[in-house]
Amino acid sequence: MSIGEVLALLQGEFPDVTISKIRFLEGEGLIEPERSPSGYRKFTHLHVEQLRFILREQRDHYLPLRVIKDRMAESFGRPRAVQENKEVRLSRAELLEAAEIDDETLTELEDYGLLAPVARRYDEEALNVARSVGALARFGLRARHLRAVKAAAERECGLVEQTVAPILKRRAPGAIGEADEVARELSTLLLDLHASLVRSGIRSVLGR
């Protein structure tokens, strides 16, 4: 299954779950979908059950991810270690094919600062941005229309930076790891808040 298909299966029970949330849980090592050579995630029904388990533990018991991960190990077994070769590094041509966008759109994305290659290679987040913009293009939205989204994301990153700065200044053992955990959790909360605010705003526009 694709990540969109997984989202559709989960939203009946968890209406607030988002694609960003699923990606975050993957980044935390709680689920490990396979990858196609072009970087597409490939989910199974086991991954869906694992996600349901995680989301129920968060919703019903308010448990932190590190505790949920231990409980998952008891129910599903220990996840395999993430392999280095799963890291996405795409050429320009590979990104265009994987994201299903044209060269003009990619150039526009780079011109407006929505993504940028590193050593002429594009990582997973660049692929996600390109796919999202490609999907938005069906509604007439181009990179130039999304500058407000980029500005909002930068402001949210600023909030994360302000929060973790005092932790890093302590220079205590484990400070970097603690700051990383706080930043990840805070970014998830901000993403969920952002999604809820957008949905609420849309309901107001539609008069619901």
Automatic annotation (TrEMBL):
Gene3D superfamilies: 1.10.1660.10. Residues 1-74 form the HTH merR-type domain. SMART domains: HTH_MERR (SM00422). It holds the Pfam family MerR_1. Keywords: DNA-binding. GO terms for molecular function: DNA binding; DNA-binding transcription factor activity. InterPro entries: DNA-bd_dom_put_sf (IPR009061), MerR-type_HTH_dom (IPR000551), MerR_fam (IPR047057). The keyword DNA-binding applies. PROSITE patterns: HTH_MERR_2. The keyword Iron-sulfur does not apply. This is DNA-binding transcriptional MerR regulator. It comes from Nonomuraea jabiensis. The lineage of its organism: Bacteria, Bacillati, Actinomycetota, Actinomycetes, Streptosporangiales.
